[in-house]
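From the shared-data thread, chain only:
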Amino acid sequence: MISNIANEMDFKFPPIVLLKSDVKPDDAIGPKHGKGGCVMSFVAQTIAKRKTTCFGRENITCGGISSGFGWGSGLEDEDRLDFQASFLSCGVDSAPNREEYEKKLEYLSKPTREMFKEGERIFSDFETAKTNIKNRPLYDEGQYVIFKGLENLEDSEIPKSVIFIVNPVELTALIQINTSFRTKDAYLLTPQASACQAIGNYVFRQEESDDPKPVLGPIDFAGKRKMKHFIPSEYLTLAMPWKLFLKLEEVSKKSVLQTGLWKKFKKA
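Structure, as tokens:
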């Protein structure tokens, strides 16, 4: 697909798309069967190298990916929920059962164990983390999530999420375009979500809205760390459902992108 926004803005990292499918592409790279980890390392390769990447249900080893990619909650019981809430807040200091939490960390590698001990601290305390986890948008469809460059999108394919990778100036322009046709107040979402959720299930929820909004991320440093080998740390993702992307494409044809002011920033 040819994007007017991408052509006008001449991104260092052009947009990519997230697709759901029951069929794994032959040309896609991804973790081996039974191996998982953070998906953002694969997303970064699609962004930087324009490689098609694929992640399947059999690769789930992170508590956030199941909900992020619309494969259920990934939490079989209350114990798993409490463990994740502890990790996403202050780790061992947040755990309702400190001894039990520490015992589960014994099998982890030393760097991972230390991270889980101190917690990711996305949330300030255990109860806040648990409430937010329970309120995540949940879906359950498709065996695979596929990432590819927007330019490689087939006419028959409809993405679940279109993902821009932007520096601060590019983000400013996209925010202006996104807000230019609206008449109310804030039109950008920053959910306290993991990197995969900010391009996945929180975007899926916006597809259901009559007034969809883009989702900014990643605001978790764990996900950002997995991308930094390929993507400079100042870059952010701005993800949106397909119907909002098409609206922005239309609006962008008569927008700040055609002004001399933008051209001066573009050359800087």
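DSSP finds 13 helices and six strands in the chain.
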